[in-house]
Specification:
A 4-stranded antiparallel beta sheet has the order 2-3-1-4, with helices on one face. With about 110 residues, the protein is an alpha+beta fold. The longest helix has 16 residues. The protein contains 4 helices and 4 strands, in the order E-H-H-E-H-E-E-H.
């Protein structure tokens, strides 16, 4: 996967925009127009950053298809070991933010 972490008051939108731009520049979207993007909360934000400045963290990643190669900088390349993972399907994310965060913590 190619992933990027961003800390800001609006990290989900900011990091998704960054990764969309990276996917275009790297050639990923030409190679695989339906490339899967995933995301999750980044938990390593000091509490003071959140309470004082409203800063949160989020990670966005593209699952890189087999055969795709690029030298485009700006992301961290990582391998995720195969395992069983919990999945949360979110239909109305802005209506239940606290429930979503609680679900991911479980």
């Amino acid at each position: 996967m190619a992933r990027y972490v961003l800390l800001s008051p609006n990290p989900e939108d900011d990091v998704n925009a960054y990764m969309e731009n990276w996917a275009r520049q790297s050639g990923l979207l030409k190679f695989s127009p339906d490339a899967m993007r995933i995301g999750w909360d980044f938990p390593f934000v000091p509490p003071e950053m959140t309470t004082r400045f409203g800063i949160h963290g989020y990670v966005a990643a593209y699952i890189l298809p087999e055969g795709f190669e690029t030298k485009c900088p700006g992301v961290e390349y990582a391998v995720q070991k195969e395992a069983d993972y919990a999945v949360i399907t979110i239909y109305h994310p802005f209506m239940a933010v606290d429930r979503i965060r609680g679900g991911y913590k479980k």
